[in-house]
């Protein structure tokens, strides 16, 4: 329900040179990172391990044996790995111009050298498996299609630190977004306060059924792209990463908010753009991507931007013009939220069409022949500062994911102060450089590593536990361990953000006691939360009672009930040290039962009843007597039913009911006692009072009579609770 303001001027989108969109079918060549395959190595350095400690003086003597005293060679230890766990191992700097391969072979001939090797360069391991990743030169330039190696934003290096977060909302203010695209659908923003299709403005934000953003041009809730420009921008920002298809965005895991202000021709009104910005403000967008603009100044538009707490990324425009003197808005606004982007080429020069200006334009980003998503599940190339700005918007999304508490001022500073400076960009953009995602993330990675909390704080030493760890300065690949009676490493460590880790840790069989939590980042920074976690050894089971404790030899099978403490689902009732032929039923931590078959009670004897647990051990024993004394028998209970919440007297009729006998109702481990028992002479009747709880389970209950000697008679289903 956008209210359109008076038209101020048309905004023209900035995409150029659209190449026909095609579905991507290119297979990516597997990246090789094994040093045995890649021969890239650091010049004038080797890694070496000796059989004992070394010094520079000792090494100098070895050099003399290699080359003679007349040849000046200087091999110096630059890092001693012994201090961090690799004894007698060193990084050695060679003399200028020395061939590391040659020197390595000389050292390998020495008897006190364990090994010597080149200092190989390992390529980044976090590369997505998208089928068209090789086409994304702006993210990872290997020289494809005549480009310059590393004329890119160092995205794979940044992904080693962070791949994004679903908590970060990025508004794409454009021609809409094809939110059904398979590379975008999983990252689509959904309004949590709105109920789809009910025709009600559930969250009272002024828009009805705005489930996935808003179409301000057509004034409806369907911001679907009918041009292709917005979808292309959205893909560069946040196409799903590592999903095995298409392309990857700069951030793999953000929530894209489609806000359509322009028509199918790529033009719209300032008023609708303003409304889109205000909507994004209200709905929590951290970043706004604005690949559009015009030459006319608008106070309204500027005010909307000034009211935002988001980073507002703007394309500089495509007129090859200096917008310091010929303004282009919103790129030329001096608002602190605005970050303006020029287009750079695959050779790290400014694009010929790109607007520029050392005052108005902040940074450059890849903007020529950019491959990204297009409507109807397709992909294709576009060129323009429209394509450059989404690279920066995606980077901002990464920064907010990496440090959730970051302000737009801090995010902007991190982007601008870490550019790769290029001569061709000097005098064209304020920073004189093209963005570098890795350096930007590294710049905000100055928060000291700390651990402030762990959940849970205790667990049994028979469990596999999921831990949530809170703190600061976490990176994407830390190690986590518990340290105390022993060291217990965690597995499957996941960096949710710079302030939260999830980890899994196996505690089965580990030593009970208090432990420290230790987190170590890849740069060896370490933080410890002392005495924060307890591993608990569970108590062994204890048997406090058995029922019955007396049965008649030659009788039929019966239910044996065992009461006690610290029972578990793995606990087993043992009959003279062996498990009964029938399984043990676990009711709760204090109640177990099993069925004792008739063949176990054919002869008089005394049986030791214990409970065994495979983790905690075996309980002490109680005796069950098998004898020939007659057991009580029950014929009926009168009345045979009662209502929940009632109290009344009942008569139990049977035989061999001894003075002092007790009675109770039983059902599935629950028991209702009879009180005020009175045994009639001859042991044929018992009267007692039964108070039925108001929450007692309805249905048929067993009636049990237990003689003082432990003999029990059970009449199944003889009493009904209504």
What can you tell me about this protein's structure?
The chain has 722 residues and is mainly beta. It folds into 5 domains: 10-16 and 129-443, Peptidase S8/S53 domain (Rossmann fold); 41-120, Alpha-Beta Plaits; 450-536, Immunoglobulin-like, CATH 2.60.40.10; 542-627, Immunoglobulins (Immunoglobulin-like, Sandwich), CATH 2.60.40.10; 633-721, Immunoglobulin-like (Sandwich). The protein is built from 9 helices and 44 strands. The strands form 10 sheets. Strands 37-39-42-41-40-43-44-38 form an 8-stranded mixed beta sheet, with no helix packed on it. Strand 30 and strand 31 form a beta hairpin. Helix 5 runs parallel beside helix 6 (299-306), helix 7 crosses helix 8 (408-416) and helix 8 (408-416) crosses helix 9 (437-443). It is flat. The two termini are 58 Å apart.
Which short descriptors sum up this protein?
mainly beta, 7-stranded parallel beta sheet, Alpha-Beta Plaits, 9 helices, 8-stranded mixed beta sheet, single chain, Rossmann fold, 35% strand, 722 residues, disordered N terminus, Immunoglobulin-like
Helix content: 10-25%
- Total domain count: 5
| Strand elements, count | 44
Number of helices: 9
Helix/sheet category: mainly beta
Query: What portion of residues belong to β-strands?
Result: 35-45%
Radius of gyration: 38 Å
The CATH architecture designation of the largest domain is: 3-Layer(aba) Sandwich
Per CATH, the class of the largest domain reads Alpha Beta
Strand neighbour order, sheet with most strands: 37-39-42-41-40-43-44-38
Major beta-sheet overview: 8 strands, mixed
The parts where pLDDT drops under 50 for at least 5 residues are 1-38, 122-128
What fold name goes in the CATH topology slot of the largest domain?
Answer: Rossmann fold
Calculate the terminal CA-CA distance, rounded to whole Å: 58 Å
- Mean pLDDT score, rounded? 86
Assembly state: single chain
